[in-house]
Amino acid sequence: MAKNNTKSAVYTWEGTNRRGQTLKGELAGQNLAAIKAALRKQGITPKKVKRAAQPLFGIGGGPKKKKITTQDLSFFTRQMATMVKAGVPLVQSFDIVADGADNLSLKEVIYKIRDSVASGNEFATSLRQFPQYFDDLTCNLVEAGEQAGTLETMLDRIAIYKEKTEELRARIKKAMMYPIITLVVAFVVTLILLIKVIPSFQSIFADFGAELPAPTQMVIAISEVTQQYYLYILAAIAIAVVGFVQAINRSPEFRDKVQAFSLKLPVFGNIIEKAAIARYARVLSTTFAAGVPLVDALDAVARAVGNSVYRDAVFQIRDDVATGQQMHMSMRATKIFPNMVIQMTSIGEESGALDTMLDKAATHYESEVDNAVDAMTAMIEPGIMVFLGVVIGGLIIAMYLPIFEMGSAL
Q: Is-contact 331 284, C-beta < 8 A?
């Protein structure tokens, strides 16, 4: 039997729905007849259908393809929640959301999900076609919403969860990037001084005919070594960074050790710990409120908590809860959760409002992360200024020291 090699193309269409409203959009299909048939299945009577124009040589004035980010996925979830809550039909909601998306790659994914739903698949099944963008937690919550008839509520909860998670990630990124960028700039400036500026002073000092001060001699010696080996130094740093990143991506054991070590770092460890607790409470609150059984919810939390120490602890809590133990007792046994979170969990279990108490705990620790980042920034700024003054200022003073001594001798 011959294989059908017909490629699908994008068609623009215009038609009317059962209420007589005029609609338009884009749909991917193999031919004109397939597009019209798909529209009729959606209750749309097609009036105009034509193949979308393709830019010459793939170059056009529209948005360029780029990687789909977590911000894009957060936008998609929030917009879908808004559309469904407003009573817009699901398939039409995809068209509206895709039309408002700036990322062309996100548009294509949305259209593919829409086509899958229009062909009769469930929303969750369509999302599972893109595991690189939609994790099991999102798909399971959408599936639960579809089965319970509460899709709009579930999409709203997913949107809140993703927005809170993205805010938390942005705070952690802010905490990490500021000192890293500052140190990199300091390294580059120091390298330029050692390679370009100090040799100019060295040629001037050669005409002095006197012995240079010890600090100046030390800086000149460092400059000579740097001039000779700076390419090797840069290559070694690049190899070390790339090797570290590759080891984290490819070795789960190494990644777990790095994550465990990160909790012991001064200042940063406290922020990472608070972020892990906030993520734990947020995900567990979202899944449990969605009606997911507690054991299954804990399993989802363990995979989303973001740190190996807390992941292993949550797996232990899951196993304890599965045997009938109360969750707050199991949390206390791990010895890594603060008393406040344990007490709030205990109150939630006793009152039957576990999701509400965990939501409050998540909000509290998200605020704690924000405050910790601000405090860290305020504390690090003076330290960085002192560091830059000692390193760069020390190099400059060492170079001017012979001139100062010669002036005092006169």
A: no
